[in-house]
Amino acid sequence: MIILGIETSCDETAAAVVKDGRILLSSVIASAADIFAKYGGVVPEIASRKHVEFILPVIDQALKQADYTLKDIDKVAVTYGPGLVGALLVGLSAAKAIAVSMDIPIVGVNHLKAHIAANYVSNPDIKPPFLCLLVSGGHTNILKVLDYDRIESMGQTRDDAVGEAYDKVGRVLGLEYPGGPKIDKMAILGDPEAIAFPRTKFRDDPYDFSFSGLKTAVINYMNTKEQKNETVCKEDVAASFQKAVTDVLVDNVFAALREAEMGKKIVLAGGVAANKGLRNALEARAGKENVKIYYPPITLCTDNAAMVASAAFYIPNSNMELNADPSLEI
To answer: Hey, what domains does the chain have and what are their CATH numbers?
Structure first.
């Protein structure tokens, strides 16, 4: 089955063609991240306008890369939430137009479930059940993936998502948006033990996360140094912040794996799955506990349409009443 995927939930306009949910035939992404760097984050109205500008050329390019036309497509899949409502509507409008004009089914895909499905494209042998650590700009969850479309949450963030914390700390360090990749690179040059930033744990829900206090601790540290006119080693701040983040993520997901009794594999998904510090920390613990870590290549960690097309292979078709749901849950 040949599925055309469309993704427009935030600031990337993407289209991809995937065969049988696993074989990637093409993937095209037009990102507006550089435009938003000067604003320090995504501006929803500008993002929507850029999607309108990019959507048709991106779809055309994805079809050409796969050496297909719309007549060869069996289904069209599209992200319908969560995300920015205006951005989501651009992708939905394009997908519905294709579905109607070509008389093919449309499949609405949950953006968070799509991130998990990125692993199906890059790791053909991975199949549910497994435990997933989903880390992105808007979400931080530990998920029991019982089946392709049956997922239960074991833990989630109570405030800032990990990607959001990275962007806010990046701003304090004077880094352009998005801050996550830049902090990851800067952390390599710093001492992760230089500053004792806090790690938040919960007794009632031991797999939940909180990064608001950590973010505030970094801001207070920087402000105190500035008030005292003391020199700040930004590399040490970045390394210590990242160590605090990865310690909690790794500890929680391995503890959850033991309780869930879901074998010896952990799947990493979401934009922050591209973070090398997190990957290294997970791999180091996995080596000690004989656990296999799966994650997509960096090109499939951030928002893309290949993951949307892959997810659509495993879920039922939608109808033409499909609408955007910016607050859609997992």
So the answer is: 2-117+301-312 (3.30.420.40), 127-295 (3.30.420.40)
